[in-house]
Amino acid sequence: MAQLQLGEALKQFLDKSKLKNGIRAVQIESIWAELMGKTIAKHTDKIEIVNQTLFINTTVGPLKQELVYQKDKIIERVNEAMGETVIKQVIIR
User: Fold this and answer.
1) What are the structural domain ranges in the chain?
2) What is the CATH number of domain 20-92?
3) What is the pLDDT at residue 56?
């Protein structure tokens, strides 16, 4: 039986687990202020990932419109920060 490092074993588990998107969403939330700025982070309520789609919730109308214009940049920044293609689409709610 092959031996794995703990980190590699966890990575393999998460790749096959349904927890993967939830953990990635938490990771994105933890760096959201760095990626998008403190003002945007302050006014976004919830971040979720479902099937490589990032859902961003905010109740601020003008911010929703600004985020719609920045969808491509959000995808680029998140994927770069995560080191792999995690997000292919962004939906602002």
Assistant:
1) 20-92
2) 3.30.300.20
3) 93
